[in-house]
Amino acid sequence: QVQLVESGGGLVQPGGSLRLSCAASETTFSMGWYRQAPGKQRELVAVITISGSTDYGASVKGRFTISRDNAKNTVYLQMNSLKPDDTAVYYCTVETMDLRRPYWGQGTQVTVSS
User: Fold this and answer.
1) What is the pLDDT of residues 55-64, one digit of tens each?
2) How buried is 38 (Cβ within 10 angstroms: 0-12 exposed, 13-18 middle, 19+ buried)?
3) Confidence class of residue 30 from pLDDT cuts 50, 70 and 90?
């Protein structure tokens, strides 16, 4: 059972920045973030593999940057130029090294509003 600890959510004004962090209890193959806004489906924000390969959702490309510290089993999501449409609950997710089993964090709220 992989434990995930998320941090960094909150309220920010449009155009502002926020950084999310998620620490895993063990080394994982991939680490990433999905988000879900009220009334919408959960969507990919960004994911990064242990080798550093990344993938981003279309709506965040060029504004968000994902990175990871393998020594700390921690993934970071730097969010810049935030828009009200970025308001959602952001969920950290990882896949295990062996069977690529997914685990999810409890979610952290990000609200972009003036």
Assistant:
1) 999 999 999 9
2) exposed
3) very high
CA distances from 65 to 36, 87, 94, 97, 108 (A): 18, 17, 17, 23, 17
Token pair listed for 78: 């730097």
Residue 90 exposed, middle or buried by CB count within 10 Å (0-12, 13-18, 19+): buried
Please tell me the distance from the alpha carbon of residue 18 to that of residue 80, in angstroms, as a whole number: 7
> 85 by DSSP, 3-state: which?
helix
Rounded Cα distance, 35 and 25, in Å: 22
